[in-house]
Amino acid sequence: MTPQIFQIHGLVSFTLAILLLFLGKSLVQRNAMLRQYCIPESVVGGFVCAAVTTLFYFGLNIEIEFDLDVRDTLLLYFFAGIGLNSDMRQLLKGGVPLLILLVLAGVFIVLQNALGMGMAEAFGLDPKAGLMVGSISLTGGAGTTLAWAPLFVDKLGINNAHELGMASNTVGLIAACVIGGPIANRLIRRHQLTPSGDGSLEVGVLEQQPHQSMDYYDVLWAWMWLNLTLMLGYGLNLLLVDAGITLPKFVSCLFAGIVIHHIVLAVMDEQRLKSWGGARLGLSLISDICLGMFLTMALMGLQLWQLSGALLFILCALTLQILLTVLYTYFVVFRCMGRNYEASVIASGFGGIALGSTATAIVNMTTVTQKYGAAHQAFLIVPLVCGFFIDLVNAVIIGMFSGI
What we know:
Oligomer: single chain
Helix content: over 70%
Number of helices: 15
Number of strands: 2
Strand content: under 5%
C-alpha cells in the first residue's frame, strides 16, 4: 500500500533541527562512550530523527518529508567562514601534503570500486553494478549518484542503479559520521601525539577553553563578512560556469573567503584589525552553528527504508567498504600524512572523503579539534581534496571501470 506522505514546512523543519541538536548535545553529555570517541552531537540528534521517521514509515505507513532547502545555504556559510579564517601561508605549506592526500584518495577509489565489483559478482549481479556501492555513492556522494544512475540504467541496463546508489550513500553517510572520531582518538592515544592546544579553531572553541568575551558587534561583523563572501563566491561560481567549469558552490565560497581575508589584512591598519579579531570569534561561532545544523538536517532527512531493496548485498558490500576504509585510514593515510597530530585530524576526515561527504569530513575534524586543539593545515587540505580535486579524479576512474 502506498504510504501517506506528510510534508513538514521549512520553518518547522529548521526549528526541529535546532531541537535535535540540543537533544544530541544532551545525549553526548550523558554518555561517556559518545564523548570518548568524539561522536558529533549533530550526528546523534539527526540519527534519532531518522530512526523515528523510519518507525513511522514501517509502523504507521506514513512517509515524513522535511523541507530542507535552507540546508545548502548553511553549508555555504560554513565554508565561507573557513575561508575567512584561513591563512595562505598555511595553504602554501600544505602543497605537498595536499598532493599526497589526493594520491591516497585516488588509490582508495580504485580499491573501493574493485571491492564493489567483486561483491556484485559474488552475488551474481552485473559486476558494474558494484560501482554503485563503490566510489559513485561513497566517495562521490548523493550528487554523483544522481548523475551516474541514469547512465547505468540506459547504457548498462542496471535498472536498480539508483536504489543501490542512494541506499549505499545512506549507509556510508552514517558510517562516515561514526568512524572518524574514534580513529583519531585511537591514533592520538596509541602514538602519544602532542595536540596543538591552539584555541584559535576554524570552527567552535576548545572544550576546556575559558569562554572569551564577545558582543553582538562581533557577531554582526562576522555576519557582514560572511554575506560579502557568499556574494563574491556566487559571482566566482557564475564566472566559472560561463567558462565551462562546474564546481560545487562551496568551493567558490571557500576561495572567496581566502581572498577577502588577505585583502582585509593588506588594507587594514593595526587599530582596525582589532575589530577583525572580534569578528573571528563571531565567525567561529556562526560556523559552528551552521555546520551542526547542516549535518543534523542532512541526517534527519535520510530515508532509511530505501535500504530494504537489495538489503543483503548492500549490507555485505558496505560492511567490507567500511572495514577497508578504517584499515586504509589507520595504516596508510595516517602514516603517509606524517604520523603527527595534523595527520590524525586528517585521518578523522578521511572517512568523510571515502564514505560520506565534505561536510562529514569537516564535522569529524571539528569534533576532534574542539577536544584536542586546532589543526589549521587539515582544514585547508581536506576541503580542497573533497570539494575540488577528488570529483575530477573520481569521474575519470568511474569512466574507466564502467566503460561509459
